[in-house]
């Protein structure tokens, strides 16, 4: 075979820029012919199987394939067949043994053009918010993660006539898109018909500036549990993918590219599918489906390197092990495996059973971080942050650098999200981190789905009165639950009596605010704006009082107004 030659055997095998010293006359005889794939995989000396991504016991069988072609050549008989599962490798090899080389199910790419080997873990830092195929970086990832509020804003969306989730066939991953100003959510699920897939949610009532959604379940003299979201905040499309691979796990959006992991119930097969979500109501499958045997895929994590190569990380059962893949070429969704990491290799902290793992890039340095979300055995919801670095030689180092206990419950004890169901990271136009999480089922008002937005503090500027906000905290030093009062939503709740607003009467012990100059917000000691006033003066900057008791106004606020 000559240098640079391209041959088609079976369906597609591309051999790129490799020098081979072997000859295989039987291969030449088969070139260009379409031979039927074996209907039942056989374990015979006349054939050997290869899966470049396989990391288990290797016997060369269909169930326990080799992960290199060299091993298969050594094991197969003269004039035998080496079957190669879909994937890419930059392996070079040589032999004088005649044999057949055939692909199974999809494209196989072999040669130096197939991949770039072990990469340097750095992310793309020049990605603008709203880009098609990359995510914006985050300023000081650890600090941004630590600024995420532990108590979230309560939201919801309707099913819109689409299949009803249940406690077992539940929501399993969530991402907010950058499309149309961050208007859409994508949530993975298994539906009542047993198909894995995902739903696209149009949050039509929310702003389209990529910033906070704000709660869409505020009601006059009504608690969250009695207030359904606006009817326009609803599922507009469901994508059914597979009935055999019926579990769709934690997902990641990279620009408009969605990576969705699917697995079967016994962990013997999994796949990663890629979709272009540019038109949210019409997802379009792109790239090459990554097929994996004898291992599950609970999470899919997708990022981009500075040179355009994509980095894909797939989590096995309970996100362990982590399999690392690099794209064969820049800006192509065709991957080759290069490393498997086990949680016993963790350098600091603990690596939990994550339902979702998202990749985040730090501005400036390009350093990479993994944000994992999970619920523990005490029914607590957690987000953990890890640094991802190159280790000695060709290895991966993962180190826990921060964690955050978040709270899905309201003051009545009702949960509005579950990190053991669906959760995920989002980056806003100001390069700040948010967390989103949805419940398992559809237990919200009117059969809606409850979810929460965990925003950074502070979350943005207040150049106009429409951007003004005040947040009261139940405990000093900004602890425990809060009452978020946005100027734009001030007519949706009755702030003349805090007993009618989330049970917040005489509860405020700390306060933060951002109000433009020339405006103020006044707290009153009694309801209906009576008693001693306590004005919060607008400066156009983020302001805070960590302890209202020090100002003689602790646990006294009973009403307020602009």
Helix content: under 10%
Strand content: 35-45%
**Uncertain runs:** 1-11, 14-44
Largest beta-sheet characterization: 5 strands, antiparallel
End-to-end CA span: 79 Å
Mean pLDDT: 89
- Number of helices, counting only DSSP H or I runs of 4 residues or more: 3
What are its keywords?
single chain; 562 residues; mainly beta; Tachylectin-2, Chain A; Gamma-B Crystallin, domain 1; five-stranded antiparallel sheet; four-stranded parallel sheet; elongated; disordered N terminus
Write the layout of secondary structure elements.
Layout: E1 13-16, H1 25-30, E2 47-50, H2 69-75, E3 81-89, E4 100-111, H3 141-146, E5 153-157, E6 171-176, E7 184-190, E8 196-203, E9 233-242, E10 247-248, E11 252-254, E12 257-263, E13 269-276, E14 284-293, E15 299-304, E16 310-315, E17 322-327, E18 335-341, E19 356-361, E20 368-375, E21 381-391, E22 395-406, E23 422-427, E24 433-438, E25 449-454, E26 469-475, E27 479-486, E28 510-514, E29 520-526, E30 530-537, E31 542-545, E32 559-561
Parallel strand pairs: 1-4, 2-3, 3-4
Antiparallel strand pairs: 5-25, 6-7, 7-8, 8-9, 10-12, 11-12, 12-13, 13-14, 15-16, 16-17, 17-18, 19-20, 20-21, 21-22, 23-24, 24-25, 26-27, 26-28, 28-31, 29-30, 29-32
């Amino acid at each position: 075979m000559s240098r640079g030659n391209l041959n088609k055997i079976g369906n597609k095998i591309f051999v790129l820029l490799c020098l081979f010293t072997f000859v295989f006359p039987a291969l030449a005889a088969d070139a260009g012919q379409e031979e039927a794939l074996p209907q039942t995989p056989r374990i015979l000396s006349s054939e050997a199987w290869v899966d470049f991504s396989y990391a288990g016991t290797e016997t060369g069988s269909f169930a326990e394939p080799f992960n290199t072609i060299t091993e298969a050549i050594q094991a197969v008989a003269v004039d035998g067949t080496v079957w190669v599962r879909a994937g890419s490798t930059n392996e070079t090899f040589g032999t004088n043994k005649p044999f057949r080389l055939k692909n199974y199910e999809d494209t196989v790419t072999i040669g130096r053009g197939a991949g770039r080997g072990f990469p340097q873990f750095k992310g793309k830092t020049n990605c603008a918010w709203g880009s098609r195929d990359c995510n914006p970086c985050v300023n000081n990832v650890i600090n941004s993660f630590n600024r995420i509020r532990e108590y979230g804003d309560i939201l919801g969306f309707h099913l819109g006539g689409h299949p009803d989730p249940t406690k077992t066939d539940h929501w399993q991953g969530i991402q907010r898109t950058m499309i149309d100003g961050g208007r859409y959510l994508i949530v993975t699920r298994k539906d009542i018909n047993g198909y894995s897939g995902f739903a696209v949610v149009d949050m039509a009532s929310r702003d389209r500036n990529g910033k906070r959604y704000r709660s869409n379940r505020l009601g006059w003299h009504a608690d969250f549990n009695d207030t359904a979201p606006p009817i326009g905040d609803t599922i507009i499309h469901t994508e059914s993918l597979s009935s055999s691979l019926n579990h769709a796990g934690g997902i990641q959006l990279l620009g408009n590219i969605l990576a969705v992991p699917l697995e079967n119930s016994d962990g013997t097969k999994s796949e990663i599918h890629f979709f272009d979500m540019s038109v949210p109501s019409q997802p379009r499958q792109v790239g090459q489906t990554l097929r994996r045997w004898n291992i599950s895929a609970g999470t899919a994590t997708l990022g981009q390197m500075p040179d355009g190569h994509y980095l894909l990380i797939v989590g096995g059962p309970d996100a362990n092990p982590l399999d690392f893949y690099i794209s064969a070429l820049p800006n192509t969704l065709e991957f080759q495996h290069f490393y498997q990491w086990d949680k016993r290799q963790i350098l600091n902290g603990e690596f939990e059973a994550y339902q979702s793992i998202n990749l985040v890039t730090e501005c400036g340095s390009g350093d990479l971080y993994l944000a994992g979300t999970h619920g523990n055995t005490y029914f607590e919801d957690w987000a953990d942050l890890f640094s991802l670095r190159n280790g000695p030689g060709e290895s991966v180092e993962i180190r826990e650098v921060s964690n955050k206990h978040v709270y899905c419950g309201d003051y009545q004890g009702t949960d509005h999200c579950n990190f053991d169901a669906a959760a995920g990271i989002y980056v806003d136009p100001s390069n700040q981190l948010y967390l989103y999480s949805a419940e398992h089922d559809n237990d919200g008002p009117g059969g809606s789905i409850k979810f929460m937005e965990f925003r950074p503090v502070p979350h943005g500027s207040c150049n106009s009165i429409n951007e003004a906000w005040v947040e009261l905290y139940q405990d000093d030093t900004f602890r425990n639950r809060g009452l978020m009062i946005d100027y734009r939503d001030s007519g949706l709740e009755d702030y003349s009596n805090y007993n009618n607003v989330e049970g917040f009467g005489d509860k405020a012990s700390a306060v933060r605010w951002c109000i433009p100059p020339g405006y103020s917000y006044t707290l009153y000691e009694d309801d209906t704006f009576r008693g001693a006033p306590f004005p919060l003066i607008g400066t156009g900057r983020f302001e805070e009082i960590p302890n209202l008791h020090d100002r003689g106004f602790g646990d006294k606020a009973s009403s307020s107004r602009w």
